[in-house]
Amino acid sequence: MRITLTTLTLPPTPILSSTFISDGRNFAIWNQILAPHLRCDSEESAKSLNCTATTSCNCDPAENKMKCLCQDVNITDIFTKDIGSRFPIRRPWITFTANTSKGVTAHIPSLVAAEVFVQLRERFERTEKIVTNEKCTITDTVAKGCYRCPQGAAVEIYCTTDGNATIATVRCDEEYFTIPCTPNGTKSIWRFSHSSAKVRKECQVSCGKTTTRFEITGILQWVRTLSGIADRIAQGESNVQRNDTTGFRPHL
Questions:
Q1: Do 149 and 214 reside in the same domain of the chain?
Q2: What are the residue boundaries of the Phlebovirus glycoprotein G2 fusion domain, all occurrences included (predicted)?
């Protein structure tokens, strides 16, 4: 018998395409617009000076010389001052941990689907093919959370089937994921990122040949991150409103 993992589907996670940096002991996620001036692929490349140097300068001619204004990137500050970017990074939908020998490890706790191919070499005298065609339904639900924020939005989905317990396939716009579905209804939590306050997603769910529709709506809130508040305090602002530090603010 041979078991092969053919496909592995992850929920939409844009943070996986982020850039990570390390000082040899600590890891951090690079959130700044400017890239570091000196980039090395590995520690061995850095020791042999096999690196790429880039600058961000604006130069203008000044008589018989050039006058350049360059932007400096302080890499050490991300390890000492930017707490939100240092490892370990924990979000409701993903956790990043550092592994000095293998780099960065990402753990996604839910909504991961896999397809396994099982190959057998046996002799069978009789085979039976059982096809089930349950009908799965999900009621319209409301999304809660924030938009354009690391926490993202979340929605509780209750999936009910008229047959045996099964796994349902859900499609919302261009996003696919699977959830458990039972006769009494099973709750699943789907987390997603959104760029605006108003949410309206047309979704489909299927367990067999029958497809049913449901809708996800809601008004998301805006939230200021703790790092943004710390930056304001560091810049000398003393009038930081209390509702900035307690989380969500209603969308106006």
A1: yes
A2: 1-116
> What gap in Å lies between CA 147 and CA 52, rounded to an integer?
36
**CATH number of 213's domain:** 2.60.40.3770
Max alpha carbon distance in the chain (Å)?
93
Cβ–Cβ under 8 Å, residues 79 and 28:
yes
The parts of the chain modelled with pLDDT lower than 50 are 237-252
For the chain, the domain total comes to 2
- State how far the Cα of 157 lies from the Cα of 185, in Å rounded to an integer: 9
Q: Are residues 50 and 85 in the same domain?
A: yes
Residue 27's contacts (CB-CB under 8 Å, 6 or more residues apart) are 20, 21, 86, 87, 96, 98, 104
Residue-wise pLDDT tens digits, 101-142: 667 888 877 666 777 788 777 777 777 777 677 889 999 999
63: left (phi over 0), alpha (psi -120 to 50) or beta: left
Q: How far apart are CA 247 and CA 226, in angstroms?
A: 9
- At residue 170, the 3 state secondary structure works out as strand
